[in-house]
Amino acid sequence: MATPRGQEGNTGALGALRAQLILSVLLPALLLGAIAWHEHDQVIASTDRQVEKTAEALGEHALKVLETDDLIMARVLDHVRGLGWDEIGSSRSVHDFLVEVATPLPQIDSLFLVDPDGRIVASTRAFPVQRFEVDQRGYFLAAKRSPGDTFISAPFRGQIGGGVAFSLSRARLRDGNFDGLVGITISSAYFDSFYRAVSDAHDGATASLIRQDGTLLMHYPMPTDGSAPPRPDAKLASAIAEGDQTGLLEATSEFDGRTRLLAFQHLHGRPIVVSYGVDKQGALEDWRTHLDIYAALAGAMSLILVVTTYGALRRVQGERHSAEKLDAETVRRERAEDALRQSQKIEALGRLTGGVAHDFNNLLTVISGNLELIEMRADLNDATRRRLASIRKAAENGGALVRRMLAFSRRQPLQAKLVELADWMEDVRNLLEHSLRPDIAIETAMPADLWPVRVDPGQLESSLLNLAVNARDAMPGAGTLTLRARNVTLPAPEEPSLKGDFVEIAVADNGTGMTEDTRRQAIEPFFTTKPVDHGTGLGLSQVYGFVKQSGGSVALDSAPGLGTTVYLYLPRAVLEVQESRDAVLARTVHFEPGSLLLVEDDEDVAKVAAGLLERLGCTVTTAPNAAIALERLESGEEFSLMVSDIMMPGTMNGLDLARLTRRRWPELRILLATGYSAAADEAVAEGFPIISKPLSLRVLTQMFQSRLVRSG
After folding, report:
1. What does the alpha-carbon distance between residue 405 and residue 31 come to, in Å, rounded to a whole number?
2. pLDDT digit string (tens) for 133-161?
């Protein structure tokens, strides 16, 4: 398509404005992202420094507490030097001394002495002390095992106060051997109050006192349900286990699920680590507030740029659109005109084909009917019968050709039935396997939930066989024929001309395919790419006419070397509680041969039909048109059956005659004959039985035996 007028002058400006429009959004977003990233890093770095300083302060505090407790234990051991354990346990002065040195120190919950057998003999809690055994406690066993060290126990819940605590203990030595111990119980309440005061400045802050082996001694905040303190964060425990003295890390707590920025510090000369952490999201709260302000400013700036640029872009696009619209309208008009011409051509061919087929049907009736009458003669020799059989075969071929022509012109009577494709298609597959070459594989894909369709199963089978034969001829070597179906709701891109629920049947091959010109002409009657005497050119036309007559449509998809797919769209059957065409035709009334009125405008057809009917024992009176037929009825002649062609010249056709006869002579039975579907469908809808042309003795016999209905 040529470039629209004026487009050359504004293409560059349009591109520049589009780039500016993109930059109007992109640049403020990039600027906002850079500022946000920079401030985020600054906030994290500042928080890390604060956490480190706080951890250092907590470490100094914990170290002073432990050093003070060491001094207290040393004073107690010095005070009781030389005293026996019975004397210590009975001495009021020893008890008072313990109380005196422990009372000023808030971290000491209790100060006690334990003899070598593991019995507490003196304590700040009471005098005299109620002795109980602690020989299995960890601190006792550790002091007995390593008497020269200060041991820090795991946290435990006190037997008196019930609070969480841990203890410090040091062995008493006599002549270098273990001789009991002195211990201090440190309550979590002391550290809890101190850590609370330190952590108030940060929401979600935590502080912990951790033993070198990873045992958590103290933690703030403590669980409110009275359970034991949580375990250290996995990353922190790993760093402590590796012997790191200090460090910064980011960890997610198993206790409350928060992610924190943590700093830890190992206490000099002590198997203790102090950690302090703050909630990362809380630390970033101010940063998010600033980010919202920056985002608002960037959004306002971007909006101004976008509105300004978009306005200019719309003006330029409007100029371009006006130029393109004219060309697009021209293209649409040309396509519509092409489609209209094609539709008119197909419709004109259909009318012409239908008219020819109707006249040809009458000729075939004369030929086949006279053949039947001649073949009934007993004096025919074998040679004559062979010639007659040859003539009959030609007549039958002519009848098949007529049916194809009528199918294309959509004037062939259809015996529509409800068809469940998923089951029905298996029989078609078996038919195709016997109709195609052995080197052609057949694949089917028929979902069990396919909607039912109301079609003529014989015509559908013939259509699929036609398509399969075409596919076979398009695959000179080995190939694959695929039949698949699915439920679709239209309009859809594949078939925009239909609307509603349809079943799509696709017949695909991997053969030579078609050119675009061939694809456009493929459904036209008598068009074929096959050699002379290898096809009539009515195969696809018949399929097209049958599907259109059934309320659907046909689409082709093909390209050279890529094979061909033919799509049949058949409307979903609506299951209604009403009498179907088949039900009307199937109703039976006993008929005894008698006087019969035959209404047929073609004299030769009338003679043959009369001869066939007389063979059935009927007395036949003929009428060339509806007017004369009415005269005979009004004259008082009695008839048991009226057989009338539907398509007749004059002001009244056969269906009009049947309607009038039904009203005036309701006892008279009526049978209509035609090869046109439109008339047949209308007649069946009104309850009249139909016989299709060309007429034959066999068909007439069957109708008389099973398909005559009363006119009322």
Report:
1. 74
2. 888 888 888 888 888 788 898 888 766 55
